[in-house]
Amino acid sequence: MTSTPTIAYQATDLARNHRQVLGAARNGGALIRDKDGLALLLVPAEERERERDVAGLALNLVRAVLAISRHDRSAASFGDLGWVSVLPPESQRQFLAEMSDALLVVSSGLPLRSVELLLGDWKATAESWADPEAREQLLAAADAPLRETEL
Q1: What does the pLDDT look like over 101-120, one tens digit per residue?
Q2: C-beta of residue 2 within 8 angstroms of C-beta of residue 51
């Protein structure tokens, strides 16, 4: 997440001290106050996009939590995570737990790649549950007794 810059620049500093302002922007953000006192934040675009992605994922996760807590299985109630609606309730709870943990980790500034991989894995799982034949096999496998194996 973007930290609040400790130095506030004036709009005129963009012309007079542009290297200093841009250096501050590259290193986390430059706070610029315009002549009316409005605070503007100059940050690297990649950082801003990442923060927007994390916030969007968090909002989607909240929608999913609400849908699950209301026992609403319609895909529309899950928003962009509509595919989660085909998962069994226990898998939905596991998805929420894993995604919550992953979002907490990436919110500290780490790359989103781990969340993208996790989403891909869960989407593949949901596709299996959405396919009637695969669903039957998954349910049969869940009811099958565990075989004893010697380690």
Answers
A1: 999 999 888 889 999 999 99
A2: yes
